[in-house]
Specification:
It contains nine helices and nine strands. The protein has helices spanning about 5-15, 70-75, 80-95, 95-125, 140-150, 170-175, 210-215, 220-225, 230-235, and strands at about 25, 30, 35, 45-50, 55-60, 130-135, 155-160, 180-185, 200-205.
Length: about 240
Amino acid sequence: MPVPITFREFCGIAKITYAPAVTAAAGGFARYTPMDRRLSGFQGAIYRRPAEGGLEWVVGIAGTQPTDGMGADVVADAGFGGSTGGVIAGILLGPLGSVLSTAGAVLLERQCHAAGELITAARGAMGRGDRLYVTGHSLGGGICQIVASRFGVPAVCFNPPSVTAVAGVESAYLRTKPAIVSLQVRNDPINETGRIGRWLGKIVPLPTARAGGDAHSIDLTYGELGPAGPFTAIGARDPFSF
């Protein structure tokens, strides 16, 4: 029986997806494709490793990077609010808020489309017995939930926003029923998105003492899931075993 990919190994892939120069991750994963970077702000790549009975493939999706794509990621974040978020933005910011919400929805969809292209490419390269997953952090974790639902691919998400306010996502999830697991870090500001939507699949809490921006850090989460960290037991587990 294949050895499962651990929480920390998924986290390692989500972590290096921010770093185009890094091509190898913990657990023997190596980048299979060049880093895909687009004007929409999307950044992602395909990783793989040998495993019993075939190869394990993971599509990694980076999160918000304010300096990349001329700030497109920051605008795309607004897309997770859906129509509810648009109404709230309009009330708080007036016409500018409504424009930001609409632009966010467009950019988020473009990023999801790009992630879907990577999933399709990975499927085209896979052989018999291979397995495919998707992972990402922050904005990337939200995109993971969306494309996992559309394509029926298992996903492991880190510090993701809620996604059910995005039109069509929940119905796609109910149709394909993929296994989705999200590591939700205590005190992370992104957890406030639960006020306008829900997360898909299983939530695994990480009761860290970190707060604010530190609670959202994928680097600090990776360290806490490691052998010397306070949550090494979680890091060593198969995310889908929770």
